[in-house]
Amino acid sequence: MKTKSELLLQTYIEKHIDDEPELLTELRRQAHLTLLHPRMLSGHVQGRILKMFMQMIQPKHVLEIGTYTGYSALCIAEGLSNEATLDTIEINDELEDKILKFFNLSEHGSKIKLHIGDALEIIPSFPYEFDAVFIDGNKRHYVAYYEACMQKLRSGGYIFADNTLWDGHVIDEVVDKNDLQTKGILEFNEVVKNDERVDTVILPIRDGITVLRKKL
Ligand SMILES: C[S@@+](CC[C@H](N)C(=O)[O-])C[C@H]1O[C@@H](n2cnc3c(N)ncnc32)[C@H](O)[C@@H]1O
C-alpha cells in the first residue's frame, strides 16, 4: 500500500513524462475489467522507461519472458527500429487472443512475435542471439530464466529483470519457507550479485528493476 506522498509523487511523475499512448491506456482499462491480476502489467511509468532503454541500446533482437497482456511488449516495440524484432513468450494460452488483438491494433505490433509456451523450453530453440532481454515471468524461476537467457545473450547485451525488490519482501527478516516467489527473487539477487560474467545494478523503480550487462 502506497503512502499519500508516494501516490502524489507517482502522479507528478506521470504528468511530467511522455504520455501513455491511447492504445495502452485502453489495454490497461480492459485488463482491469477482465483480468484477475491487472497490477502485473508494467504501467505508464515503467512502460516509458522500457521504451527509453530500447532507444538507448538500439537492439536488433529482444526477448521478453512473460507477455501477460502485451503491455510491456508494446512499450519495448515502440522503442525499436522497424528492422528490429521482439520475441515475447507467454505460458498462458488463454491470453493469446487478447494479446494478439492489441498487437494487431498497434503500429508497432508487426515487430513482435508471440510464442505461447514455457520460456524455459522455447528459449534454447532461438536461432539467433539477443541484444536485450526483459525477464518478467514466474518469480520462482528467475534463476532458471537467467541461466537460459545468458546462453542466448550476446556479449555486451543487457538483461532487465522486473520485480527484484518484490514489494520490499527482499528485506523481510523472516521469509516463510512456503513463499517460493520471495525465495526465487532472493536467490536470483544473490546469483547475479556473485556472477562475474555480468555488471549488476538495481534501479529502485516501481517494484525494482535489475539491469545486468553481460561483460565483453
Ligand atoms: C508479471 S506478468 C508479465 C507482465 C508483462 N511483462 C507486462 O509488464 O506488461 C507475468 C507473466 O508471465 C507468465 N509466465 C509465467 N511463467 C512463465 C513461463 N515459464 N514462460 C512464459 N511465461 C510465463 C504468466 O502467465 C504471466 O502472464
SSE diagram, text form:
Layout: H1 4-15, H2 22-34, H3 43-57, E1 61-65, H4 71-78, E2 85-90, H5 96-105, E3 112-116, H6 119-122, E4 130-135, H7 142-152, E5 153-162, H8 180-193, E6 198-203, E7 209-214
Parallel strand pairs: 1-2, 1-4, 2-3, 4-5
Antiparallel strand pairs: 5-7, 6-7
Helix pairs in contact: 3-4
Per CATH, the architecture is: 3-Layer(aba) Sandwich
How far do the termini sit from each other?
Answer: 41 Å
- How many strand elements? 7
Which percent bin holds the helix content?
40-55%
Bound molecules: S-adenosylmethionine
Biggest sheet: strand arrangement: 3-2-1-4-5-7-6
Number of helices: 8
CATH class: Alpha Beta
Global structural class: alpha/beta
Strand/helix succession: HHHEHEHEHEHEHEE
Largest sheet: 7 strands, mixed
Shape: globular
Task: Provide a concise account of the structure shown.
The chain has helices spanning 4-15, 22-34, 43-57, 71-78, 96-105, 119-122, 142-152, 180-193, and strands at 61-65, 85-90, 112-116, 130-135, 153-162, 198-203, 209-214.
